[in-house]
Structures are given as C-alpha cells and as structure tokens.
C-alpha cells in the first residue's frame, strides 16, 4: 500500500461504481447467472472498500492488503463490524475460485448470499464514508 492525498472525488466515484456493480449482480441473479452474481457482488464490495481507502489517502496493492487495512483501521477501531470484513474476504476467495477454479459452480444459494452481503457491505461503507475522520499522512499503516 502507499499513501496519497485523500481523495473524496475518487471515494465518491468508487461508491458509485460499487452501487452499479451491485445492481448488475442483482440482475445476474434474477437471470440465474449465479457465477456472474458472485463475481459482481464481490466487485461491488471491493469498490465500496476502496472508497474508504481513497478517502483515507491509501492506495492498495492487492485485494488481501485492502482487507488487512480494513481490519486494522476500521474493525479494530470499531468503525466497521468484523463480520462485514470477513464476508468481504470470504467472497474474495469465492470470486477467485469462480473465475480460476476448475470445479467451482455457484448455485442460487451462493449467489443470493453474495448479493445480500454485497448490499450490507455497500450500505456500511456508504455510512462510514460519510463520516469525517481519515488517516493522517504521518500515521503508520
């Protein structure tokens, strides 16, 4: 990860992208495109999480680093529930298996779960992004 100047415009745009991806995930679910719903739900969560990092002036280098940052800066400080970040991590793995795995097919149950968790994460990220604190450039990450 690296520090940059906090960017509220990128943060807002990332939340907008997250919302669009979640809408696409819901459409995929309605059309029984379950793998697509899982991948799009995770993508929505990823963009919602990035919104918080952009707001803090942090640029991630990997999906795992993004999750670790959220655990350190948001979960441990009581700004996000651990379950939300754990869901993000679980769906990161599901997304990876869906895209790269040879034996994985998502069913309706997995897709419904992913869309529901994506919506919960996006709502929490929007609420958190509206708050006014951020990481200062001199803080350790």
Task: For this entry, give a set of tags.
141 residues; mainly alpha; 5 helices; 2 strands; 3% strand
3D architecture notes:
By secondary structure, the protein is mainly alpha-helical. 71% of the residues lie in helices and 3% in strands. Helix 2 (34-56) packs across helix 4 (82-100) and helix 2 packs parallel to helix 5. The protein starts with a strand and ends in a 12-residue tail after the last helix. Mean pLDDT is 91; it is low at 134-138.
Our Rg estimate from Cα atoms comes to 15 Å
Number of strands: 2
Major β-sheet profile = 2 strands, antiparallel
Strand content: under 5%
DSSP helix fraction? over 70%
Q: Distance N terminus to C terminus?
A: 8 Å
Low-confidence stretches: 134-138
- Give the mean pLDDT: 91
How are strands sequenced across the largest beta sheet?
1-2
In total, the number of domains comes to 1
Pattern of helices and strands: EHHEHHH
CATH class: Mainly Alpha
Oligomer: single chain
Q: What structural category characterises the helix and strand content?
A: mainly alpha
> Could you name the CATH homologous superfamily?
Nucleotidyltransferases  domain 2
The tally of helices reads 5
CATH fold group: Four Helix Bundle (Hemerythrin (Met), subunit A)
Shape: globular
């Amino acid at each position: 990860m690296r520090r940059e100047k906090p960017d509220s415009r990128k943060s807002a745009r990332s939340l907008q992208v997250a919302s669009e991806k979640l809408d696409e995930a819901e459409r995929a679910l309605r059309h029984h495109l379950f793998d697509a719903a899982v991948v799009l739900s995770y993508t929505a969560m990823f963009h919602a999480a990035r919104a918080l990092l952009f707001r803090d002036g942090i640029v991630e280098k990997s999906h795992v680093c993004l999750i670790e940052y959220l655990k350190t800066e948001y979960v441990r400080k009581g700004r996000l529930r651990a379950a939300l970040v754990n869901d993000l991590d679980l769906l990161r793995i599901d997304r990876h298996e869906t895209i790269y795995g040879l034996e994985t097919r998502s069913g309706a149950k997995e897709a419904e779960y992913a869309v529901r968790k994506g919506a919960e994460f996006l709502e929490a990220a929007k609420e958190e992004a509206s708050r006014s604190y951020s990481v200062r450039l001199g803080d350790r990450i």
